[in-house]
């Protein structure tokens, strides 16, 4: 009787590996189906409205002081001043008239975007988990502890690192193609580090959470990278906070289900 048990247990790492690339593809397919459910279509509105209101509030409060500060700073940028003087001398236009608003928008709009993602992670993800959990993962019991507090803290620190990192790396945008690469990196960081936790925090015990984040770190980052690439398309901004949450929920809960199946097999006499 020992050999069959050994074969089943030894085959499980290969089965668990399907939660890698194949698991990512499966999660995106399942999330697409889930997204068209009426409850999830309504859930799209909350983070989108929060991000929109956040953008308007940030622009109203900080646009003028930020652009004034950037104008002062730009006056000390010798390269910009020389290029601006050259353009004006040719009778064209002043680059500062366009550069300052672009930089200000590049600072304020992503901050409103990360606010919308944080709202989705803390307030919408529980709705997502109840939706997919009841339909496709009913057998995955909830064993998480302090889920809300952990989710809020995770959203705060990820948002803080994103905002600071985004602003500090803005000067590198002047070096092609760093603007695109940095944007992709920071949004991949935000999606991965924020939503992977919220996808499993209610169901996985602390030990299971640690194992899943370690075992499937690459898969979580691949999902974040794909979502970050989709984020380059403005129309995707409307549904991406909820859709990305659905993808992470399907991927994380499927990985948790496989982990528990693995433990059951290993525990068999």
Describe the structure.
This protein is an all-alpha fold and 269 residues long. It has two domains: 26-136, no CATH class; 145-268, no CATH class. It has eleven helices and no strands. It has helices at residues 2-16, 21-35, 38-43, 45-74, 78-89, 96-136, 147-168, 178-200, 206-215, 217-230, 240-267. Helix 4 (45-74) runs antiparallel to helix 6, helix 8 packs across helix 11 and helix 10 runs antiparallel to helix 11 (240-267). The protein is elongated.
Helix-strand blueprint:
Blueprint: H1 2-16, H2 21-35, H3 38-43, H4 45-74, H5 78-89, H6 96-136, H7 147-168, H8 178-200, H9 206-215, H10 217-230, H11 240-267
Helix pairs in contact: 1-11, 2-11, 4-6, 6-7, 6-8, 6-11, 7-8, 8-10, 8-11, 10-11
Give a short summary of the structure.
The protein has 269 residues and is mainly α.
Please state the average pLDDT score: 84
How far apart are the termini? 9 Å
Low-confidence stretches: 1-19
Largest sheet descriptor: none
Task: Identify the quaternary structure here.
Answer: single chain
- Write down the secondary-structure element order: HHHHHHHHHHH
Could you tell me the strand content as a percent range? under 5%
Count every helix, treating DSSP H or I runs of 4 or more residues as helices: 11
Give the total of beta strands. 0
Radius of gyration (Å): 23 Å
- Class based on secondary structure composition and strand pairing: mainly alpha
Number of domains: 2
Helix content: over 70%
Task: For this entry, give a set of tags.
269 residues, 11 helices
């Amino acid at each position: 009787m020992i050999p069959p048990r050994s074969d089943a247990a030894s085959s499980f790492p290969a089965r668990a590996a399907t939660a890698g690339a194949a698991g990512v593809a499966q999660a995106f397919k399942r999330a697409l189906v889930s997204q068209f459910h009426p409850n999830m279509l309504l859930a799209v509105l909350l983070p989108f409205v929060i991000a929109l209101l956040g953008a308007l509030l940030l622009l109203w409060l900080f646009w003028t002081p930020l652009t004034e500060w950037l104008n002062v700073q730009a006056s000390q940028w010798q390269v910009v001043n020389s290029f601006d003087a050259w353009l004006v001398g040719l009778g064209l236009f002043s680059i500062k008239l366009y550069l300052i608003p672009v930089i200000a928008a590049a600072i304020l709009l992503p901050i409103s975007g990360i606010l919308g993602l944080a709202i989705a992670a803390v307030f919408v993800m529980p709705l997502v988990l109840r939706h997919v959990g009841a339909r496709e993962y009913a057998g995955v019991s909830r064993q998480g502890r302090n889920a809300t507090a952990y989710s809020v803290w995770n959203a705060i620190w990820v948002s803080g690192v994103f905002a600071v990192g985004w602003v500090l790396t803005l000067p590198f945008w002047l070096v092609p193609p760093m603007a695109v690469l940095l944007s992709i990196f920071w949004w991949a960081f935000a999606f991965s580090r924020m939503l992977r936790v919220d996808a499993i925090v209610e169901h996985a015990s602390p030990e299971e959470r640690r194992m899943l984040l370690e075992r499937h770190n690459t898969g979580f980052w691949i999902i974040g990278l794909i979502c970050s690439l989709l984020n380059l398309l403005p129309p995707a901004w409307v549904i991406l906070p909820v859709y990305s949450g659905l993808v992470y929920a399907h991927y994380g809960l499927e990985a948790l289900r496989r982990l528990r199946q693995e433990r059951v097999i290993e525990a068999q006499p």
